[in-house]
Amino acid sequence: MMIADGIEDEEKWLAEGIAGIQHNAFYLHRAVDSNNLREALKYSAQLLSELRTSRLSPHKYYELYMRAFDELRRLEMFFKDEERHGCSVLDLYELVQHAGNVLPRLYLLCTVGSVYIKSKEAPAKDVLKDLVEMCRSVQHPIRGLFLRSYLAQISRDKLPDIGSEYEGDGDTVMDAVDFVLQNFTEMNKLWVRMQHQGPIRVKEKLDKERSELRDLVGKNLHVLSQIEGVDLEIYKDTVLPRVLEQVVNCKDELAQHYLMDCIIQVFPDEYHLQTLETLLGAFPQLQPAVDIKTVLSQLMDRLSNYAASSAEVLPEFLQVEAFAKLSNAIGKVIEAQVEMPVVGAISLYVSLLTFALRVHSDRLDYVDQVLGACVKKLSGSPKLEDNKATKQVVALLTAPLEKYNDIDTALTLSNYPHVMDHLDAGTNKIMAMVLIQSIMKYNTCVSTAEKVDVLFELIKGLIKDIDGTLADELDEEDFKEEQNSVARLVHMLYNDDPEEMLQIICTVRKHIMAGGPKRLPFTVPPLVFSALKLVRRLQGLDGEVAGEEVPATPRKIFQLLNQIIEALSNVPSPELALRLYLQCAEAANDCDLEPVAYEFFTQAFVLYEEEVADSKAQVTSIHLIIGTLQRMNAFGVENRDTLTHKATGYSAKLLKKPDQCRAVYACSHLFWVDDQDGIKDGERVLLCLKRSLRIANAAQQMANVTRGTGGPVTLFVEILNKYLYFFEKGNPQVTSAAIQDLIELIKTEMQSDTATPDPASDAFFACTLRYIEFQKQKGGAMGEKYDSVRI
After folding, report:
1. Cβ contacts of 733 within 8 Å, gap of 6 or more
2. Which Pfam families is this protein grouped with (predicted)?
3. How confident is the model at residue 411 (pLDDT cuts 50, 70, 90)?
4. Tens digit of pLDDT for each residue in 82-113?
């Protein structure tokens, strides 16, 4: 309630201040329009008196200040026109100093000072020095900050810089630098003092308000960086030492962090490189609470980008020994800040390593030196428990992989394994993911069984349970992502030599079979498809070759595949195993290995019978079986009849009538295959279609009994389309009369009193009839066939 009251009071005070400004602005405008200088000064002073309030927060005070600022712009235009007010600029400069209150007096003085400098009746440096000194009389933090911000605003284009119209005799650049530095110093002092403007209990609120005003102070550094005359020498001898002196001496963590960041952002990278020792020397002197790691990281990032911008600047880095200085500075900072958490120290080493990799990519000793420093820092605790620190260590280990695009490089760094020794089991998994992602990102092909064995040892945290952590205890999404990564990795293992490729497959199988029931459904399929890829490369080769090494033949690979999929079916994951058996059957068919293909089909049917219990899964499985069997051409008559009979039998035993109907009419394709002259059994096709029609009728009657209305005629229209397909393919058993009868049946069903209106079925039937009509109109042999069909 007290906070709400405070906000309401502040809104009221702001409204009163704005009303005061508007009231006096009205009379000010009238005085300006009538060229009445005395009245204009009177009302402008009264208007500016509204800025003397100390009851507003910085945010609200800014609103008030902007209202006054707009009026001061108008007043400055009036002051410029001497003909209107009839007073010389020097007299005007004296006159405004008679304003009663110090704050309005100084705002007016700054405004007239701007005009005075433009008139060039006095050197710009003298006027600016006068103004910056007089502004010291306002020591209230908020009022003083905004006053000096106004001074900086009106003077930024009037500094006596090289090439400026206000450049005077002598070393005027130093005068400009002194003015900006003095204004910056005073503004920073006021800004730091703001933290003492309220009780300790509202410190968080005060810090937030102070943070909102930081740009007012930082703009001075931006102005300094824009002064043309500030060359490297002036920056090195004057600007940087004085700015750093103020930063260190203010002993305020918020100010130190922001101003160090400003220095790094606004001044050129070339200056940073040449003054690196001076800049880095300030870091250990900062307050312990300052987030040095972020600022130092930004400095190293900027220097890295500078080095990357041109090869010509690289000798400068070597000349100033940038890496050694940065490494030394980081060591001193970590030593000085005893309380710095491990994550902070490691993040500094990550930035230093990034710098070394980008600037001195040929110096592996630098990379190893950084890793060694990290090992030294981590030596106090054997295993990391801080999650953030762990991520930083992973980033540290990842950087060389990304830079050199080669896992082998990590092995040449003596400290690389020592850093990994500090990772716990969970982080090992993260690192394993990083290794896989590195391989995927750079499309690295792992080409020998030996390398594959080493790689899978490195990523063992992903492919089996270690340290007693069970797969069931892991987050489901994370687990899936990990296993999908392993699955993608399997596809990156390749060798042109079939013998070596078979060895790779056997090596992968050895590792993933220890993965447990939750992992196998993810890792077995890519291994199966990798083996099938090898089978297709060896298509047509078979037989046994004497010798110690087992030759890579399709038959041998199929035996291996049978064992792998059998392990998956025992998990149990029957639907997936069934799909893989069918894929293997198709590959065996292409290799013309009828017994092998028959065995895979047998395994698929056994799984269907014994393991697939869900009705939806049964529907999907039977359609997969029918579709695969339809493409087989290696089977003899006996084997094909056996499998076809099984498929049609299971189709008719599905739970739901519509599913039965669709599966049975799908079986019709098993008896009529276009590219195989031997399989064109018109009678059995018609038998399947008639059987599906009976099932559709039964489904319709069942709907009548249970719901009192007939179901949609979709099934009948689907069967009609099958009739048309086989009619066009030349099946003599499918006649135009049968099609005509079916069309009449559908029309009767649609007009029945118990029919359920279904726009989708109606549209489907209408499209089918339009197709028949189109074929009739097209003419030719097909048109003649359709002539006898009446719609």
Report:
1. 682, 683, 685, 686
2. Vps35
3. low
4. 878 788 888 898 888 887 799 999 999 999 99
